[in-house]
Amino acid sequence: MAIKFNYQRILNNLIARHFPNLLVWKIKIIEKKIEYKAMVKSYPWGNFIFVNPKVRKNYSINPLKALFLHELCHFEIFRKNGWGWIRINWDYLHYILSKEYNESVEAEVGKMVIKKGYKKQRDLSHKIKLR
Ligand SMILES: [Zn+2]
Questions:
Q1: DSSP string over 100-120
Q2: How far away, in angstroms, is 106 Cα from ligand 1 center?
Q3: What residues sit around ligand 1, an ion, with C-beta below 5 angstroms?
C-alpha cells in the first residue's frame, strides 16, 4: 500500500533547510507517469519536480528526501547559473542528447547531495526500474 507522504511539505522543509535561495522559485512537486524516478521541469508558469508514482510504493522517508534533495540540486545549479526557463530547457535538450554532459551534471549533483549530508543515490536520474 502506498504511504501517504506529503511530498510538498517534505520538499518545502528541504528547501527551507538546504536551499533558502530557492524559496522564491516556488517549486511544486507533482506525481506524474514519467520514464524516470524523478525529474525537474521549468515552464513560464512555474517550476516543477515530477515524481513517478512508483516511487511512493518503494521509498521510505530518507531515500525519498535524498531523491528530492537531488532534484533540488538541479534547480540550485540553474539558480547559480542565473538561468530562466528558456535557458533551463536548452540545458534539458543538451542533457538528453549528450550522455557525457548528463553524466557530468549528475556527478556534480551527486557531490552536492553528499555535502548536504545525504547518501548519494547513484541511479536516481536513470529510467525507472522499480518493482
Ligand atoms: Zn539528476
A1: HHHHHHHHHHHHHHHHTT---
A2: 5
A3: 106, 109, 125
**Ligand 1 mean position, distance from CA 131 (Å):** 21
Average pLDDT over every residue of 105-116: 93
The model carries a pTM of 0.90
Note the pLDDT tens digit of each residue in 45-74.
999 999 999 999 889 898 899 999 999 999
* CATH level 3 topology of 7-115: Zincin-like (3.30.2010)
What does the DSSP 8-state code read for residue 36? Answer: B
- Calculate how far, in angstroms, residue 101's C-alpha sits from the geometric centre of ligand 1: 12
